[in-house]
Amino acid sequence: MSEQRVHAESDPGRGSLDLRGDCANCFGLCCVALAFTASSDFAMDKDAGQPCPNLQADFRCGIHQRLRPQGFQGCTVYDCFGAGQQISRVTYAGQDWRQAPDTAQQMFALLPVVRQLHELLWYLTEALELEAAHALHGDLRGALTEIERLAQGSPDELLALDVAAHRQDVNVLLLRTSELARAGVTKGAKGKKGGKKKDRRGADLIGANLKGADLHGVNLRGAYLIGADLRGADLRVADLIGADFRDADLSGADLTGSFFLTQSQLNAAKGDAGTRLPPALTRPSHW
C-alpha cells in the first residue's frame, strides 16, 4: 500500500531485517488482510481477507500511480515496516496464499503481528543511533536482538505472542531514550521566559495554529496534530512517536534530529520542498 516501496538496504541504519515495505517481494498481504471502509481515505468498503479489486495476478496494485486521485489515499499512508516481505519470503518461504489457500487466513492474521514487531525494531534501531542515549545502548541491543528473534518465529509461535507485553517492555526503554535525547534541549530551556518546555504528550492539538512554533525538544508522543498548522515550526529533537500528523501542514518545518518519526506519519501529512527531514525518511511524492 505504501508509496515508499524502498528496499531496506538503501538505509543501512535500520538494521539487518528489511524494515521498509518492499511490495515487489510481498504477496500483496496488506491489499487482502486489512479491512477498510468507504471514506475520504478509501473509495470503497472491503472486508478483511477479501482481495482488493485493484490487486493484480502478480500481486501488484493496478492503480499504484493513481491511488490518491482514485480515492485511495489511505493506501499511500500505510507502511508495513517490511512485515509483508518477511512473512511472504521468510515465514512462508515464498509460498503464496493463492498457491496454498489453506494457509491464507493464517498468513493474513500474521500481518498485524509481524508489523508491530518490525515497528518496534524500527524504533529500537533508531534509539541505538542516538549518541545521547549511549548509557542505554546495552539494554536497547538486548531488546532488539530479542524482538528480531521473535519476528523470525514460526506462524504458530508468532500468533501465540503477547505483542502488547513486548510493546510495553520496549516502550519503557524508548521513554528513557527520549528523556536522555531531549535532556540537553530541555535543560537549556530552563531560565528562559516560560521555563522548562511544556510536555505535549498526548495533547489535543487538532487544527492548532502552531505556525513558526518553538517545539524544539518537546515531547509530542501520541499528540493529536490532525490538520494542525505547523508551517515553519521548529521540531528539532522532538519525540514524535505515535503523533498523528494527518493533514497537518509541515511546509517549511524543521524536523532534523527529531526521532521516532515514521514514513507513515509523513505520508499522512502535507509538506513542501522546504520541509527538513531526518535522513532516514523520504519526502512523500505528493508534497
Describe the structure.
There is one protein chain. 33% of the residues lie in helices and 0% in strands. With 287 residues, it is mostly helical. The longest helix has 27 residues, at 163-189.
The major sheet is characterized as:
none
Query: Helical percent range?
Result: 25-40%
First-last Cα distance: 18 Å
Structural class: mainly alpha
How many helices? The count is 8
Blueprint (SSEs and pairs):
Elements: H1 30-33, H2 73-77, H3 83-91, H4 104-128, H5 137-151, H6 155-159, H7 163-189, H8 263-267
Helix pairs in contact: 3-4, 4-5, 4-7
Short description:
The chain is mostly helical and 287 residues long. The protein is built from 8 helices and no strands.
Jot down its keywords.
0% strand; disordered N terminus; 8 helices; 287 residues; mainly alpha
